[in-house]
Design a protein that fits this description.
With 208 residues, the protein is α+β, with helices and mostly antiparallel strands. It has six helices and eleven strands. Strand 7 and strand 8 form a beta hairpin. The chain starts with a helix and ends with a helix.
Length: 208
């Protein structure tokens, strides 16, 4: 199963029992002011996962499309082509050659809406949305940069993550996820583009 999908499946089972808490008094306004508010954002990613007990990390790379009104298309190109599409209502994972397909329907699992919202918030740097599930510590950086350190607010989420870190400026540039088993995933985003401002027919079709 795709690693992104596997993490989301685990989150679904935990968010069911996790309370949604009011945002803390962290200063999230700085991030809100610095992160671009765009309808469609495209870019590339490289991901490195260091599994506890193994010397060499697992690496992958690809591209993504983040559409605020639709969802996220996460296309892995290396080492094995695959694709994960996340919308408000579902998560769809498939091999690029169409040989396999896994779909989770948010209408059957309402908690998935919360999980998907977390994924959107991580990729778009939505500090206020993240503050509903995490304690947020914000730090201003030079050149309009910023960093956020996130700690799970519920024991249930704490069973999956011990912490998350985000860094960026106009865009989210890096995400670091430390799991409870001490596996660490680092995702670096690059080549971001806000144009064209609308989805192509091919891109739009992935959300249908």
């Amino acid at each position: 199963m795709n690693a992104v999908l596997r993490t989301l499946v685990v989150l679904v089972s935990l968010v069911v029992a996790a309370p949604v808490l009011a945002a803390p008094a962290a200063d999230v306004d700085l991030v809100k002011q610095r992160v671009a508010k765009v309808g469609v954002l495209r870019g590339e990613f490289s991901q490195e996962k260091q599994v506890a007990g193994f010397k060499n990390p697992l690496r992958s790379q690809g591209r993504f499309v983040l559409a605020q009104d639709h969802g996220v298309v996460w296309t892995t190109l290396k080492p094995f082509p695959s694709e994960v599409v996340v919308t408000r209502d579902r998560i769809l994972s498939r091999q690029r050659d169409g040989s396999s397909r896994v779909e989770l329907d948010g209408r059957q699992q309402p908690a998935m809406r919360s999980v998907n919202a977390i994924m959107f918030a991580l990729m778009s740097g939505d500090a206020q949305a993240l503050a509903a599930q995490f304690t947020v510590k914000v730090e201003a950086k030079a050149n309009n940069g910023w960093s956020m350190q996130l700690s799970p607010r519920s024991a249930m989420l704490g069973k999956v993550f011990t912490g998350l870190k985000l860094q960026g400026d106009r865009y989210v540039r890096e995400v670091e996820i430390t799991e409870a088993n001490q596996d660490v995933t680092r995702i670096h985003f690059s080549g971001m583009s806000e144009t064209p401002a609308a989805l192509s027919a091919e891109e739009g079709g992935k959300f249908e």
